[in-house]
Amino acid sequence: MTIFQFPKDFKWGTATAAYQIEGAAQEGGRGPSIWDTFARTPGRVYNGDNGDVACDSYHRYEEDVELMRELGINTYRFSISWSRIIPDGDGEINQEGLDYYHRFVDKLLEAGIEPFCTLYHWDLPQTLQDVGGWENRRSIDAFVKFSEVMYREFNGKIRYWLTFNEPWCIAFLSNVIGVHAPGKQDLQAGLDVAHNLLVAHGKSVSKFRELGVDGKIGIAPNVAWAVPYSKTEADQGAADRNIQVFSDWFLDPIYKGSYPKPLYDWFEQSGHVPPIHEGDMEAIAQPIDHIGINYYAMSVNRFNPDGGYLQMEEVDMGLTKTDIGWPVESRGLYDVIHYLQKYGNIDIYITENGACINDDIVNGKVNDTRRISYLQQHIAQVHRVIADGINLKGYMAWSLMDNFEWAEGYRMRFGLVHVDYRSLKRTPKESFYWYQNLVKNNWMETRK
Ligand SMILES: N=NNCCOCCOc1ccc(-c2cn(C[C@@H]3NC[C@@H](O)[C@H]3O)nn2)cc1
């Protein structure tokens, strides 16, 4: 048996995102986002699911906070629906939207739960997309204006901030691979989006400092860990590109003031480079206080000339998989956090980690033992990282509750709490009680 004791000030939490849980998509003055549009485009989202109702957390947030209080967490990561705050993206402020988030954040604070706020979790106001979205530099100033509204409004209530969630998904999954909104398949569009969101990030951090906000700010890349299928240069190159496109492509500009040369050269050889304007790289490289990292799985990569923008394919090594098809391999979490130490011993929060396990309710219970096993393996790696002296400050399980899993709709379930999408009834799963015990003890044991 091994006991893993965590630091006394370790942050234990859960995470969600606005479009995935709120619902009330046409209520409270909210304007449409690109995900409202994308979900209504036939074939884009499984079963034609959308976020019109989702988990109805817009109306049920008090019940949700009660669940968090029962879970015993001290931190809750959530995101802001930009089009609830500024419905047309960069015009008038919607007071009803601000009022909603004040009610919600006040409930969290009353429950002794630290709000951990993501400003942008993919739901760009549609009106901005109508004029090019993140490919258009106008979105940079629009985001800075939105973030300034939030900083001024919530200074003193929210102390932990993230500008962007998973910039790889925003740029590459959504504009090169095309699986997420707006669903483009254009490498230059991906590089344009990645660059403009980085400039928006940097200018928003500068605004945060200028306003003297009482808090800390960072960004949350989803990081990949990959190993080459063989020792050949070709396979090693494929794995390196995959790792770099998720983390270095965004963290090098922030921490080093330039894009990673190997990957920059890779894109340049096909005639694609980021649209860097005078002053952009300086604007991006504003010092930040922390990074959030989202880790789900690692992969084995092989060179494949027909393997898309990276000429890379993932090799199925026959590992146990979760119900969304991702392999369960917790070693990658340890390895990728060590990889990130090249940026210094920066404050790191695991802002997402969790398993898609689609177990349903049987006799009033969800016996999601596979999710418990996944969490135990990954949280053991969290302890290893801390034991190595790395500044890993917190862990937020994805997700508090089952919710809208983007292109997968509602069929994929990541929650510690089961949601019946007809009745909207919340049912804590067995993993909820396992996590509750871990949080209460602040230690975990492994026993054969
Ligand atoms: N690399 N090339 N792939 C080629 C083919 O890709 C097809 C699909 O790809 C992906 C890759 C990654 C994801 C993903 C989902 N989540 C979970 C969410 N995280 C933020 C939060 O909102 C959670 O819901 N994190 N990552 C989805 C699809």
Structure keywords:
binds ligand JSK, 448 residues, three-stranded mixed sheet, eight-stranded parallel beta barrel, 16 helices, globular, alpha/beta
Question: Could you walk me through the main structural features you see in this protein, from its secondary elements to its overall organization?
Answer:
It is globular, with a radius of gyration of 21 Å. The longest helix is centred in the middle third of the chain and has 24 residues, at 187-210. The strands form four sheets. Strands 2-3-4-5-6-8-11-12 form an eight-stranded parallel beta barrel, surrounded by four helices. Helices cover 40% and strands 17% of the residues. The protein is of the alpha/beta class. The structure holds the ligand N=NNCCOCCOc1ccc(-c2cn(C[C@@H]3NC[C@@H](O)[C@H]3O)nn2)cc1.
